């Protein structure tokens, strides 16, 4: 069913599959309830108690009905449209098989909005890249919106968008899979960040995982831009397949015949938008720490230039981008410690990048739930840590034998963050008395695994870490 304008919603029966607590299902339910749907059925396997905050938000709508703690197939069979949460698997799902029409909040947004889309996907760096791009557009005086996998549904700002208001969308592989048949997904600029093994417990193979990533450029043409990672083997594949104009970004100088951005030997980022052109894109020192974040900011800055922002303005604007929550987020300090929250590091490679993001060894907190990923690349990097603290989980169970084999000392595993932090305070604070700012110990929480069991998700995990730190080191 194609929705051409908001009036088409009037009188529809809509089932929202997956309310959740991160905003997507809630935004969809509110959107259809407010725009005249006859009935909005909100269904989730979780109970009303588990979903209490989201349920409370929807109580005021008389056309919303709840079916929580399980699904009823009639709610799918009789609905004019089912809005599917991206975390719900379509394959072999009897409820979705019974539905007449399946959409998502993003597919509805794309059907109804004329806004140009700047889309980002990849394994890691998506949220930092979209956040940096959003920040840069704002600072350059361009009215812009940000949504997608970054936990903001684009339906929340749909009615405010126009043909001259760009929308920056972070798109996960699951969200892209849901858009496979959507001709409306035609990003003006598509950025594909570094591809690493991820969600293999869902996909079963890298080929299936990457196939969903490719959907981002499927409908592009030669008026659009595709930004690929030159250092990533998959980037070459994307560049060969896309019909968009290809621009590259790299941690090293690009070959002279390629257009894009790169990190120069002096640490600055350079840009080439035309042959024989070489201009400053970023200064050598920027606010966010680490090489990985710098490359994300560089990719966003390249997109900013391609969208038409003033190239002379970009270096000073993007130098001050400060990052986002849960991605090497500096959030607290005492006289002895500086604390960084990198809870969004849900794969081993991301935790390895966190170890290498600072100019001196860090006190690293890592570990969590396994999602069938390989920890052998992470283990050698953990030797570089000043001290290593492990949070319990099935992923940690796979990591500890690797640490023992290479004789890397560690503390734990700990069953909760509070106990772990108390050990750091007891063992390290006495050795750091009368330190200067340069001598403060850096404590980084970068799990390199998921959070199931101990936390609701990686965002809850990051918030709980920050709360535990502030409780352990209260400021008077």
Overview of this structure, please?
- With 476 residues, the chain is of the alpha/beta class.
- Helix 6 (126-139) packs across helix 11.
- The mean pLDDT is 93.
- The strands form three sheets. The chain has a nine-stranded mixed sheet with strand order 7-8-6-9-10-11-12-13-14, sandwiched between helices. A six-stranded mixed sheet has the order 15-16-20-17-18-19, sandwiched between helices. Strands 3-2-1-4-5 form a five-stranded parallel sheet.
- Helix content is 32%, strand content 19%.
Defining key terms:
single chain; 476 residues; nine-stranded mixed beta sheet; globular
Structural class: alpha/beta
Mean pLDDT across all amino acids:
93
Total strands: the figure is 20
Instruction: State the end-to-end distance.
Output: 59 Å
In terms of per-residue confidence, which ranges show pLDDT below 50 for 5 or more consecutive residues? none
The number of helical segments is: 17
Q: What is the approximate shape? A: globular
| Largest sheet features | 9 strands, mixed
Rg, Å, rounded: 23 Å
Question: How large is the share of residues in beta strands?
Answer: 15-25%
Strand adjacency order, main sheet: 7-8-6-9-10-11-12-13-14
Helix content: 25-40%
Offer a quick outline of the entry.
The protein is built from 17 helices and 20 strands.
